[in-house]
Amino acid sequence: MSDEQLAEFVWGLANTGYAFLRNMRPDLVKGSDTTGLPPVFAAATEGRNMLSTWCPQAAVLEHEAVGVFLTHSGWNSTLESIYGGVPIVCWPFLAEQQINCRYKRTEWGIGMEISDDMRRAEVEALIQEAMEGRRAGRCAATRRS
């Protein structure tokens, strides 16, 4: 993703008001080897964010506090989110990710897709729909306890 896409994405996430875990590899932003964000972002989300470069994803997705999973939609992430019973917001980039996203959206009804030209308002709206809207409880019946 570009620096602009990252900024729109994280500000959309921040604008929801929800607590979040942002797990991002250092090589995710084109031409950058950092996952850093401006200090104003850290200040705006203080006390409700956790930023990391790695986490035990399957274990996190099985935790009852997780309300939605924003993912590129790789197959492992797809399986782990289904197993954890978590609604999905997909942002596919390459390989099988677009196909996985399509199935989550149209066939299984457990996911929504971020458009290629996404802006923060779209990210915010998708997260709120997954957390509070008609899709919020869709995966809850499969959630493991």
From TrEMBL:
UniProt keyword DNA-binding present: no
PROSITE patterns: UDPGT
Domain of life: Eukaryota
A GO MF label: quercetin 7-O-glucosyltransferase activity
Keywords carried by this UniProt record: Glycosyltransferase, Transferase
Family: Belongs to the UDP-glycosyltransferase family.
The protein, known as: UDP-glycosyltransferase 85A2
